[in-house]
């Protein structure tokens, strides 16, 4: 049985201006190993080229529920962010990380998004990593029409970078 994202009503897939989903199943690493690099925001730039200007939470480099941080990505100005869910994986529960990120601009630049991750060990011995994002705003609507879909491709790079980095540093 695989787990699913718990969506706040405002961000339900299909009801926003853009929604993307990426998933990988990987052998040779565990959910706990992946979580270490995903949840430590200061590691993101080590495996994802399209993130920068990271300001970690005041409490440190890991993301805990209620933490605030900021970062820039794929041409957006720095996004203010708040962690809404942060549950490390265990043998019986999936790891869950989710944050709301936003930029309060004018009607043409305002964006509001919810980005969620699930990291879990499967019963058949591989790790499953799912990342999904739901976006609201004119920039999101424009991104939804790009072909190839830029957000799908960027999140795939993030996912593949996380996997490659985890595999290289977990030996």
UniProtKB/TrEMBL annotation:
Domain of life assignment: Eukaryota
Name of the protein: Uncharacterized protein
């Amino acid at each position: 049985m695989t787990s699913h994202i718990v969506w706040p009503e405002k961000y339900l897939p299909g009801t926003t201006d853009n929604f993307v989903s990426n998933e990988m199943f990987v052998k040779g690493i565990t959910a706990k190993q992946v979580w270490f690099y995903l949840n430590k925001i200061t590691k993101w730039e080590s495996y994802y080229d399209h993130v920068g200007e990271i300001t970690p939470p005041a409490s440190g480099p890991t993301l805990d529920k209620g933490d605030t941080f900021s970062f820039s990505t794929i041409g957006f100005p720095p996004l203010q962010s708040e962690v809404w869910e942060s549950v490390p994986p265990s043998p019986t529960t999936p790891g869950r990380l989710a944050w709301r990120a936003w930029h309060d601009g004018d009607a043409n630049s305002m964006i509001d998004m919810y980005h969620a991750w699930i990291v879990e060990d499967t019963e058949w011995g591989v790790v499953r990593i799912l990342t999904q994002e739901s976006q609201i705003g004119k920039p999101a609507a424009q991104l939804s029409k790009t072909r190839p879909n830029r957000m799908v491709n960027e999140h795939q790079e993030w996912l593949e970078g996380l996997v490659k980095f985890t595999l290289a540093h977990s030996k």
